[in-house]
Amino acid sequence: MKYNRVVFFVLSVIFISCKDNKIQQKSKSDSSVKKLEKSEPAENFDEFNKKFHSDSVFQVSRVDFPIEGKHVSGFEQYDWNRKNWQFQAVPVAEKTEIGEYQHSLVQTDTLVTERFWIPDSGFEVERQFKLIGNKWFLIYYNDINL
After folding, report:
1. Rounded to whole angstroms, how far apart are CA atoms 123 and 72?
2. What is d(CA 98, CA 106) in angstroms, rounded to the nearest whole number?
3. DSSP for the chain?
């Protein structure tokens, strides 16, 4: 009988110490993952902007399909998807050289919204880029030409 109590006690101590050790290891690994997440800097928008508008494979990888916005040209209208995506070669810019278009750019640390339009013409292009998980993605593209 004493032998059973001793064995039970020893097994209990081993079980509890193993469980405590696993909890400590888990908390250490969780904190190291959090440190990695915090230490990874956010992608620079200017560098992203250059690559996005020059590399078609990269561009498609950074369009968060399905995105909001539409393509409308006359009677043709469709939502954007991977199959009908049109490569966007014009980078986001603070100023534009195209005189007939109105242009606006609103940029924060996590969202960039650019818009081109011709007043009273039915022409408007708007696109939005958002920082998601420290990487920039195109989340909205509206291309209206009536």
Report:
1. 10
2. 18
3. -HHHHHHHHHHHHHHHHHHHHHHHHHHHHHHHHHHHHHHSPPPPHHHHHHHHTT-HHHHHHTEEEEEE-EEEETTEEEE--TTT-----S---SS-S-TTSEEEEEE-SSEEEEEEEETTTTEEEEEEEEEETTEEEEEEEEEEE-
80-100 pLDDT, tens digit per residue, is: 999 999 999 999 998 877 778
Same domain, 14 and 58: no
Shared domain for 85 and 111, answered yes or no, is yes
User: Are both 29 and 49 inside the same structural domain?
Assistant: no
Q: Quick one: pLDDT at residue 25?
A: 56
Contact 138/126 with Cβ under 8 angstroms? no
Number of domains the chain contains: 2
Residue 55 shares a structural domain with residue 23: no
Clarify whether residues 1 and 55 are in a common domain.
Answer: no
| Structure-token match 């950074």, residue found | 62
Q: Which two tokens stand for residue 94?
A: 């603070």
Provide the residue type at 70 as one letter: K
